[in-house]
Amino acid sequence: MDSLNGPISFLKLVATTTLLQIIWLLGFIFVFGILLSLLARFTRITFVKTIGLKSDIFFKGWIGVPVHELGHALFCIIFRHKIIDIRLYRPNAEDGTLGYVNHTYNSRSLYQKIGNFFIGVGPILTGSLAIYVALYLLVPNHSDIFEPLKRGGSELVHVTQSNSGAILATYWQNTISILNNLFTASNLTSYKFWIFLYLSLCISSHMQLSAPDVKGASSGLASILIFFMVINAIILGLEALGVSNQFGNWWNYLKLESYALGINKWVGKFGTLLALATVISSINFTVSYVLLSIVSVLRGKGLVNPTH
Is residue 287 domain-resident? Predict the structure, then answer.
């Protein structure tokens, strides 16, 4: 058993290092992605139960669905997947699909296999970016709202990958600042602000990931994990053998942690962007649920259950 202590400890170190790195790099996508997908699902269910599926598709789908499908298509292009067929907006009453992107890839290409993760979660990323763009174009004081996004990157520069509490605290503070700057008296009296809310409602309510989206993202995540584990095993193994000393300062360039400052900057920006989308999606769901529940009660159907 003693002879196994070395290999077992090494494997635990590789696994722990890999897990921390994945959480560091992609944790914000997991957390906010789940929240955004759930909020989108709850909002759509609320609309369908009160005004009907066709009305929901007509009222929100004509914008939300194309943004969703473009999220898949964009990352297909980035990760060199071949798009066989694409329909940005084509509701099908028989199978319930509103649009689709059919694609293939080379299963021997690690790069393309990793791309499955980003293709799967693409609607979350592009949907958040679309809300960001709409806010920039339509909300009068957008510079005040964007300030936390800029601050988020600089404040997280010196946060270590394992200090998740500091990261969440920064996200929370920035979110509160965004919320205070969004609902001001001047914004509420601007017609552009209400157009923004409508567009953000359309986009956010169609950011839900389908079962095939989740399946594809899961296969891509598995490839990412394997890739990081192999790289970490090589680096940690060479360090344990003392071989890394022969490379001098050049060895640090091979380690992910050496790029922490730049990584944290972008993690902060993208994380706060997703936090902004989550706040706006929460507002859209809350307002929609309250108003449509009133309609449901007046029709004698009671309160809407948005979970199923």
Answer: yes
Q: With 0-12 CB in 10 A as exposed, 13-18 as middle and 19+ as buried, what is 211?
A: exposed
Q: What is the pLDDT of residues 245-267, one digit of tens each?
A: 666 666 666 777 777 667 777 77
Query: Is the distance from CB of 107 to CB of 222 less than 8 angstroms?
Result: no
Other Cβ atoms less than 10 A from the Cβ of 245: the count is 10
In this model, does residue 194 exceed pLDDT 80? yes
Kindly state the tokens that stand for 275. Answer: 């936090």
Residue 305 lies in a domain: no
Q: How far apart are CA 295 and CA 52, in angstroms?
A: 12
Nearest alpha-carbon partner for 239 in 257, 252, 228? 252
Q: Which residues pair with 87 in a beta bridge?
A: 100
The pTM score is: 0.83
Instruction: For residue 227, give its domain range.
Output: 2-298
- Per-residue pLDDT at 152: 52
- Pair of tokens at residue 166: 């500091």
Q: How many domains does the chain have?
A: 1
Decide if 112 is inside a domain: yes
The pair phi, psi for residue 92, each rounded to 5°, is: -125, 110
170 has a pLDDT exceeding 80 = no
CA distance 145 to 112: 36
Look at residue 306 and tell me if it is in a domain: no
Q: Residue 161: pLDDT above 60?
A: no
Q: Are 115 and 80 in contact (CB under 8 A)?
A: yes
Residues sharing a CB contact under 8 Å with residue 257, sequence separation 6 or more, in sequence order: 161
Q: What are phi and psi of 104, to 5 degrees?
A: -130, 165
Are the C-beta atoms of 194 and 200 separated by less than 8 Å? Answer: no
